[in-house]
Automatic annotation (TrEMBL):
Protein's name in the database: Gfo/Idh/MocA family protein
Residues of the GFO/IDH/MocA-like oxidoreductase domain: 144-265
Gene3D superfamilies registered for this protein in UniProt: Dihydrodipicolinate Reductase, domain 2, NAD(P)-binding Rossmann-like Domain
Residue ranges constituting the Gfo/Idh/MocA-like oxidoreductase N-terminal domain according to the UniProt record: 10-120
Pfam families associated with the record: GFO_IDH_MocA, GFO_IDH_MocA_C3
InterPro entries cross-referenced by the UniProt entry: Gfo/Idh/MocA-like_OxRdtase_N, Gfo/Idh/MocA_Oxidoreductase, GFO_IDH_MocA-like_dom, NAD(P)-bd_dom_sf
Organism annotation: Streptomyces aureus
Source lineage: Bacteria, Bacillati, Actinomycetota, Actinomycetes, Kitasatosporales
SUPFAM superfamilies referenced in this protein's UniProt entry, alphabetically: Glyceraldehyde-3-phosphate dehydrogenase-like, C-terminal domain (SSF55347), NAD(P)-binding Rossmann-fold domains (SSF51735)
Listed transmembrane segments: none
Length: 382
């Protein structure tokens, strides 16, 4: 790490000038720029007209359609990837080789093999650049408060958990050519929609040991699933369920954890505040204890801004960010295991999927009825 980095803004480059960059990443970067923490110095997109319009609108000094040229000429500290998942491996590796940290929009990569290839480019020393994933639900004040209480054992032993991402996507949504395809969307609702809730559940509950999954196409004409369910066993013995759907008109995102001394519930849609959490004590818990549980402190919503603020602080301090390395891989491994279990009709244990396993290199695992019908299709659309 350069000795002056803690005392100057991180020079950030945005890759991809589409909707997620405009709605989430750039506002977060601009907020931190106003606080003296970041400086947006470049934007890259394959569409020359779009990238120049983006740069002009937001007064970004460098615009290009060439990622490698930008990395060589601008030498940013932080590269923010707002591109489709099929590009994340190549772009993350290029950024790391250029000496930049990476903050990558979900889904992280189309496979564990891709994720591991990115991690292999990290030097691994204190202060060396690394890649991290956008899992912003870990970073709201509500999650921080509940996570601390769970780690301290304040609620007693976790026993039963439920994670629900039941959203609705109509036929028009899937008329966009890249949606519903393994190579370009990275997966169905287990990967592209429910991943945030799943990541938060795993962050709160700790390591999982076994998953038994089911998946189906019930409505949409897609390669991937449009609904999935899973049963989980955690390392501490707790059990849980996960439901991911794009078939649910009454949309909701929900996590519930039943512990010995309390039930913790989070109900929201795309982001939460402190008021979206509810803690229900078991009979006999002292009122003063419950009052402490309900003291969430200052309300910081889950958001890209909340995570980016934490990431920038970690980079400047020379720390590993929570969603980098193993901290990001655990969620992708769980989703991969869910797909393997669903498509093989067998339980999958943590650590089972590695090199040589077809699910290590593709989430569909070449399973009949789930793999792309054209064997060259993934290469053509990657």
């Amino acid at each position: 790490m350069s000795p002056d980095r803690p005392h100057r803004p991180l020079r950030a480059a945005v890759i991809g000038a589409g909707g997620i960059a405009r709605s989430s990443h750039l506002p977060a970067l601009r907020t931190l720029a106003a606080e003296g923490e970041t400086d947006v110095v470049a934007v890259v997109d394959v569409d020359d007209t779009a990238v120049r319009a983006f740069a002009d609108t937001f007064r970004i000094p460098y615009a290009s359609t060439d990622l490698d040229a930008m990395l060589a000429e601008v030498r940013p500290d932080l590269v923010v990837l707002c591109t489709p998942p099929a590009l994340h491996r190549e772009q993350s590796v290029a950024a790391l080789r250029a000496g930049a940290w990476v903050w990558c929009e979900k889904p992280p990569c189309p496979s564990l093999a891709d994720y591991d290839a990115v991690e292999a480019e990290e030097k691994g020393g204190d202060g060396d650049p690394y890649a991290s994933i956008v899992f912003q639900h870990r970073f709201g004040s509500g999650a921080r408060h509940v996570r601390r209480l769970l780690r301290e054992g304040a609620f007693g032993r976790p026993l039963v958990a439920h994670c629900q991402t039941t959203w609705y996507r109509d036929t028009a949504y899937y008329s966009v050519p890249w949606r519903g395809r393994w190579a370009t969307e990275g997966g169905g609702p287990a990967m592209g929609h429910g991943i945030h809730q799943t990541d938060l559940l795993l962050d709160l509950m700790g390591p999982w040991t076994e998953v038994r999954g089911m998946a189906a196409r019930l409505v949409h004409d897609v390669e991937t699933e449009d609904v999935s369910t899973a049963q989980i066993r955690f390392a501490d013995g707790a059990v849980g369920t996960v439901v991911n759907s794009v078939l649910s008109p009454d949309e909701v995102s929900r996590i519930r954890i039943d512990c010995e001394l309390a039930t913790i519930e989070l109900t929201h849609l795309y982001g939460y505040r402190n008021a979206d959490w509810r803690i229900t004590p078991a009979p006999g818990v002292p009122e003063e204890t419950v009052a402490g549980w309900h003291d969430f402190g200052e309300d910081e919503p889950s958001s890209h801004l909340a995570q980016l603020r934490a990431l920038v602080a970690d980079i400047k301090a020379g720390r590993r960010h929570a969603t980098s390395g193993a901290g990001g891989r655990q969620t992708l491994e769980f989703i991969t295991a869910l797909y393997k279990s669903a498509f093989t009709d067998a339980p999958v244990r943590a650590g089972d999927i590695g090199p040589g396993d077809p699910y290590y290199t593709a989430l569909h695992g070449d399973a009949p009825g789930w793999a792309p019908a054209d064997p060259h299709q993934e290469e053509d659309h990657a």
